[in-house]
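Notebook entry, structure prediction.
Reason for the run: the old model in the group folder had no record of what sequence produced it. Starting over properly, with the input documented here first.
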Amino acid sequence: MSDEKPALSSKPPYAKYAFANPYNLAILGGLNAAGLLTGNWWLALLGAGFETLWMVFAPDSRLLRRLWFDKRYAEETAAAREAELASKLVALPPAEADRCRALVAKQASINALARENPALTADLLGADLQKLGDLVRTFIDLSITGARYREYLRTIDVAAIERDLARYREAVAHRKDPEERGLIEKNVSVLAQRKDKCEELRGYLFSASSQLDLIENTFQLLADQIVTMRSPQELTGQLDELMNGVESAKNTAREAERMLQGIER
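New structure, fully documented this time:
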């Protein structure tokens, strides 16, 4: 799995944007420098007074938020998501990474089409568009998990395990010594458990793969339907049903992860 990166706060840091911007810092620094160079300390006091008023009123200004701060936050959020996506896709084979990028592009297309549909108001769309983002992130995480399972299963020679199982089971029948027989039976038990765990992992992998296909197909369907949707409830219903299935797949992936960690130990 990729390393976790610190996520942006869900609330824009308006105070930070008001202070840490080139215009504010230039004015504040210029007045302080002028006061220091000329010996007119009132310039520094003027700068401090201006900064105090700015920091009291600017962060809460609706106009500044709409015209400046919210745009900056949107840019930073988009950049952080791009960086997170790039770091995760490194762990995937090229074909699967391309598949994830295609779903991200499809999400952007659905978002744009939804906003163009007058029946789907922006206020009602907010939660549903967030669900699309959650589904994309789940798709990527399941892809990474599935790739890890497949890579692990490639290292297991199930045919060799079955051959060893058959050999040990045959040996049990010919051993009279209780100690030798007990040791062989322990080998049979361990090999049988390894085989069963591999089968479980294959089952988890099939479930995750099916869920990925469902997310992909649902996004394609939404892109086809979104232009003609007459009510946000149509979108909400489809996404809620898909989210329920995704949660089940995530639980399955967590169970498989715990099992795989137990095998590797």
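Summary: Residues 91-264 form one domain.
The old model has been moved to the deprecated folder.
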